[in-house]
Structure formats: structure tokens, C-alpha cells
Amino acid sequence: MTTPKIYVTIRMYRLENLGDCFLIKLKKDNILKYIMIDCGTLKTSSDSRLIEVVQHIKSETNGHLDILIGTHQHQDHLSGFKWAKELFDSMTFGEVWLSWLDNPDDNMAQSLGEGLSKAKKKFKEAKELVNNLAINTEMSDFLNHLSEFEGDYENDLLNADNEPKTPREATDMLRTWGGKNIKYKNPGDIKKFDDFGDDFKIYVLGPPKNYESLSNMDPDNTESYDHKLDRKSNNLGVMLTALKMKKQLKTNAAYIDEDLKCEINFPFEQNYSVKEGSNEEKIDFLEYNNENKKWRIISQEWLNELSSMALYLDSYTNNTSLAIAIELGDSKVLLFPADAQTGNWQSWDNVKLENGENIDMKKLYKNTVFYKVGHHGSHNGTLKAGLEAMTNKDLVAMIPAYEEIALKNKKWIMPAKNLHKRLLELTNGRVLRCDFGIDPNGSNENNPVWLNLQKPIVTDMYIEYTIQA
Known about the structure:
By secondary structure, the protein is α/β, with parallel strands linked by helices. It has helices at 48-61, 75-83, 85-89, 107-133, 137-147, 165-178, 211-215, 227-250, 279-284, 304-318, 342-347, 361-366, 384-388, 403-410, 417-426; strands at 6-13, 19-28, 31-41, 64-69, 92-99, 182-185, 190-192, 200-206, 323-328, 332-336, 368-372, 396-399, 431-433, 437-438, 457-458, 462-468. The strands form 2 sheets. An 8-stranded mixed sheet has the order 6-5-4-3-2-1-16-15. Strands 7-8-9-10-11-12-13-14 form an 8-stranded mixed sheet.
């Protein structure tokens, strides 16, 4: 009796904007299983393309997904669940997966969430003050673009906690669709399908959950699991005080709130300052404000802390990504890290599986034949050591990126130049992208490097690649 062949098909949907939406089809004889990972773009209004994509997925799967995964609370991964809610409401789900960080009954998750929520509120208020005061147009643009990953920041779209509404709403929808079958996944969890036995396994790699390393931190900081976030949040609070005082001074307010006069928040005492726009300033700072010597001006350097905070919050949420590895038999691995960044990737080496064994990341990396490139190919979405360990001769990479949109609209380089170059080298040019289909600098489907592999299928709707186990 012949052993049935197992095929895994990965379909990356072309969303016409920065975002992630993947459908994985598992086939063994007439048995089919479907796994969907994420559904979202950066658009903050109803997205007809996403609705079209979800309709396509519903038709393809006959309205049933065996596993639906939401990796982390960013707009470009979850917004489609909101915009296509009616379609998802009409579907059925075997299981719905979220990270342990989304578990309302997990005390550590809730503590981390509260700290992040406070920091986000302060950041939003500071960002609006920078915008309203027109202090630095370039910085305002940078902060506004980066905030798009978080979701809807317009006042009428905020939830009761004054946070971005769409990612939170989408997460609640996923919980509802999961019902009794909602699964909050921890690193080390293993998923198998009865029909496939050991021929198909999903390993949960991250986000990390390490109580020991958290409890060994500074004992004076007992109110938070993330002391770095606390420090960032405190720095942001000081900046808010300065921005509020600047706003009142700029409007020539006769009364300055007492709580804004806290001298400890400023580098110099009041008697060493001059009022902005006064004759005294014009005389004393005539040379300093010389338009031809703007490069010398340091009066806005203090705002760099706000840029640092924005990047930190963005990276923090990315690093909470639910990262998985799919193993076919004992020889082929598909890696889906979502937007995991350095800390998430590095933690995988220490993951203990639910069967008590330590995960063998060296083996998983070596057997990786498919890599979903992290965070649209950004410079910090792929751990260098991890990628260099992917030495399998059959490696294929998919990048959910639109290079022109990222560069023209956001000034972001996606995919990052050096990462892109290395991906092309490690895959022998087998790089598939949302914007081009087959990478224009790579190997087309007629190139001999695809000879012993399934050739990719490129349509206007999706890019598809099939692997035989």
C-alpha cells in the first residue's frame, strides 16, 4: 500500500498595501485542512480589497477554517477582521489562536498590557501636542506614519481607554469567533491533526514567557514586569510637562498651571530662560537663529526622546508576535515569525516543548524550506543568526511588502537592502513578493533553481507555493 503524499500550499494574498494575510492548505489524499494567519493592512477605513480577499478565502475553504490565527495587535495584521466582519461571522472555525499576552486571565499579560496602555496614552498626547504646536514638521510626519501600525488614532475612533480602536476590536472579534475553542498559545505548545499524525506539527515559538528572568529584575520596581517600558513612560511624562508648558507660553496665557512649573523637569532654572519671540531673545539669539546656520540649533534635540518612544512602542508590540514553525514529517519546516523582533527570536533557543523536550532550533532552522519574512522585510524583523542558519538548498522566501508604497508614502525601506540581498543569496533567487510576484532580482519560474520544486503560481489575487512533505 502506497503512503499518501502530503502537500502544503502557502498562499500570500496581495493586499495592495502593507499588511499580512496568509492561507495555508494541508492536503493528504482527500483530507483538507486550512489555516489562516492574520488579515490586515495599514488602511484606517473600510478596505474593499480586504473584503474581496476574505470572500475569496471563504469560497476556497467552503467557509471553514481549522485554525484562525491573529498574531499581534497591529493594524496591518488585524484590521481585515473588522472590515470583513460580516463575512467572518458567516464562517466556522475549529480553533482560534491568540498569544498568551491576549489572555484576560493571565496576570502577567494583564500587568504588561496595563503598562503598555499607559505609555500609549502619554505618547498619543505628546504626539498631538507636537502636531498642534507645529514644532517640527519632519518629526510630526515620522510619528504619524509610525502610529499607523497601532491603528485608528482619530478622536472619534478611540475606545474608552483612549487607545487605537481597530486592533483591540479585532482581537475581541477573534475571541468571539473562537468561543469555547479560543486558544491562548504559549511557547512550547504543539498542535497536531489526528488525520496527519506526526506528519504535520505546529510548534509555538513565541512570544517569550519567562517568569524567572522577569522576577530577577530590580526588586524596587515591583509594579511592572517591564521596567524599561516604565522608564520610557516616565521620560515621556516629563516631556509632556514641557510640551504643555510650551503650549501655554505660546498662547501667552496669563496663568500657568502650577503643576507645569516643576523646575526639576527642565535643565535650567527659570531666571536663565528668555521668552520665545521676545526682543531679548531676538537680540541674544540673533546669531544662534541665523537661517544659514540652522545645523547648529539644538533647541529641538530634546524631542528625539519622543521618536525613541515611538520606535520602542512599535517594536514592543511587534515583539509580542505569535511565532510558529510548521514541521512536515522530520525533514521540512515552514517558519512564520509574524513581526517578531530580536528578543522574540532569541528566546526560541530556550523553549521547552509541552512534551518536556527542549526545542531543537538548529535542526528547525536547517530544515527550513519556507520562510515568511518578518515585518515586511524590515531591517529588524529577521534575526541575522536565524537567517544564516537557514541553509537548506530548497529554501523559498515570501515577503509581504510593497516597496514603492513603503518608500513613497512612508519613507520606509521594505525590504531592507542588505536583508533583501542575503535572502536572494540563500534562496538562489527564490524570493516571492506581494508587489512583483517573483522578485525582479531573483529567479523566474523557468530558472533551473525551481527544477525539483513546485513552481510558484502568481495571480492578481495571491502568490502561491506548494511543498510536498
